[in-house]
Design a protein that fits this description.
Glutaredoxin, 4-stranded mixed beta sheet, 121 residues
């Protein structure tokens, strides 16, 4: 239990946004966030999309970290916001299962790559 709390505390640490990023808005105790962490989160760093869209976790119940204030209307947990060139390009609401998540992420990553190539950020 202590290890899980430490992981969550580190996961919700604040760092400014990068050009491309997957921002996960969730909170401790969210059962869908826990399912995502179990099914996807623990492997995300080794995925093909992680270098393009590194994962940043933000606590939906806490004050928004600097650099993330412009991401508006976060009402569902988890909400995944795909950023490219410091702008939102796609949003995934909720978590159903890993297959659906990866299908949506593949489409979002394609949009993020196109946005970054177009803007040359």
């Amino acid at each position: 239990m202590k290890k899980m709390l430490l992981i969550l505390a580190l996961a919700f640490a604040t760092v400014p946004a990068r050009a491309g990023e997957l921002v996960m808005f969730g909170f401790e105790g969210c059962p869908y966030c826990a399912a995502w962490e179990r099914d996807v989160g623990q492997h995300y760093g080794n995925s093909d999309v992680a270098p393009l869209l590194p994962l940043r976790r933000i606590n939906i119940k806490a004050e928004r970290p600097k650099g993330y204030e412009k991401i508006a209307d976060i009402r569902l947990s988890p909400t995944f916001v795909i950023m490219a060139c410091n702008e939102e390009v796609e949003r995934i609401l909720g978590y159903r299962d890993s297959g659906t998540f990866w299908d949506l992420m593949d489409m979002a990553a394609t949009k993020a790559k196109a946005r970054e190539a177009q803007a040359k950020c």
